[in-house]
Amino acid sequence: MSHHLPDTRIPAPCIINTGIIVNKLDMRRLLTDLGRVRYTYTQKDQLLSEGEGDVMEVFSNPQRSTLVANNALYLNVHSFDYLELKQSPQQETYLDLMQEGMCLRLIPLSTPLQERRERNFNTSAIEAMMEQVLSAKWDAEIDDDSGDSF
Q1: What does the alpha-carbon distance between residue 99 and residue 107 come to, in Å, rounded to a whole number?
Q2: Pair 26, 84: CB distance under 8 Å
Q3: Which one has a higher pLDDT value, 44 or 124?
Q4: Does residue 103 lie in a domain region?
Q5: Is there a single domain that holds both residue 41 and residue 26?
Q6: Which of 31, 89, 112, 129 has the fewest other C-beta atoms within 10 Å?
Q7: Model's pTM, two decimal places?
Q8: Do residue 45 and residue 101 come from a single domain?
Q9: Neighbours of 76 (CB within 10 A)
C-alpha cells in the first residue's frame, strides 16, 4: 500500500529587513548592492578586526577566499554558511555573514540607490571625458591636415 502526498508547492521565502538567507544567489544579490561599509570581524563575540571599506567584488567560488585589506572587501559567498539580516535599534539594516562561530558584520554607509546614482554619475563623467578626448583628437587631425597643404 502506498501513500501519496498531495502535490503542494512551498512558496519562496519573503524576507523583509530581518531573517536568515542560506541561498548563495540571494546572498550575492544582497551583497552586490553594497558600496561603502563599516565592518567588524568577530570570533565567538571577541572582536578580531574592524574598519571601513568599499565592497569591490562579490562572487561565488568555492576555491577562492574572501579578502578584506587596504579598505577593500572582496566577498565570496562560499566563505560563509549563511547571511543574517538584522536591524539596529535605530531601524538600520546590517548584514552578518556567519561561518562556524565567526561573524563578518557589514554595516552599510550608503544605500543601493545612492550607489547606483554614483555609478551612473561616474559612467556619465567617463563618457563626457571620452567625447572631449575624441573631439580634441579630431580637431588636432583637422589642424594637421590643413597645415600640410601648400
Answers
A1: 18
A2: no
A3: 44
A4: yes
A5: yes
A6: 89
A7: 0.70
A8: yes
A9: 21
